[in-house]
Write a structure and sequence with these properties.
- With about 325 residues, this protein is an alpha/beta fold.
- The chain has eleven helices and twelve strands.
- The chain folds into two domains: about 180 residues, Rossmann fold; about 130 residues, Rossmann fold (3-Layer(aba) Sandwich).
- It has a six-stranded parallel sheet with strand order 2-1-3-4-5-11, sandwiched between helices. A four-stranded parallel sheet has the order 7-6-8-9, sandwiched between helices. A two-stranded antiparallel ribbon has the order 10-12.
Amino acid sequence: MNSMILVFFRPFRRAQSRNKACIFVLISTLLLGTSCSDGTDGTRPANESSKPRVALVMKSLANEFFQTMQEGAVAHQAGSGGTYELISNGIKDEQDVTRQAQLVEQMIAQQVDAIVIAPADSKALVSVCQRAMEAGIVVVNIDNRFDEAVLQDKGLEIPFVGPNNRKGARLAGEHLAQQLEKGDQVAILEGVPGAINGIQRKLGFEDAMKAAEMAIVSSQSAHWETDQANRLVAALLTEHPSLKAILACNDSMALGAVAALKSAGKEETIKVIGFDNISAVQALMRDGRVLCSVDQHGDQLAAFGIEYALEILETNELPGDRETPVDLVTPKTLP
């Protein structure tokens, strides 16, 4: 697939700035219309489709959640009757913020119409998205919300399409609390520091544990990664032999926790919960090795963002944020 869809938002600051941007785009379009570009300089070839091009920029495609997101985006484009072109891409490493910024820069050079982005870092990706907006590209933020303070500092408005992560994590934490006794020791596996979705999930877990009067004896980052979670949990089992539960801010880390518990022979005594509802964790829920997870419907999340971006391109209006569904998943609710 040669085309990509990136979803980002234009700065949408003052009407005067927007008008200047529109004039610049109009002049550029007229000039390009008289040239014979083959696209190698980043411009559109003369015979290229006039359909809007949307770029989807995701985090690690090694994570099943983002594979599912990509599949959902491809299915949405196919089901649209070819009304837009999609360019989708992601990074290999969950923490490779530099590479993700490079992907956005590539989409700017290719002059896509919109970028839908699930940022690896809630602060670091704002600047490159600002450059995309200044180039006249619509930017939509999905999955991991941009930092509000950074957006305000730069005078930007980038709409967010995604779930209430704190709410979802609290649902899972409350389900876990029903299986524990007051005062039981629990540990939290956090996501990448600076990722708003990870921060919100941690807060949701804390909300539930504090309300149930559990003892949070550790809260550390495993950077969303299975291997790091495995090593961290192995150490926690030595430090806290009375540990009763592990609350992982994503399912990849839940997998690492389960592996560590298996090695220590504690699968039966320590409960694990996750977040994302990937198929590997569904299998562990059926086996009783993971208590629950949270479904933020990754297969639909990119589609929601793409639809939002297309709406903005059509209306030239900047709507507000849109909250998407989030549901608790337990062995009883699995199909």
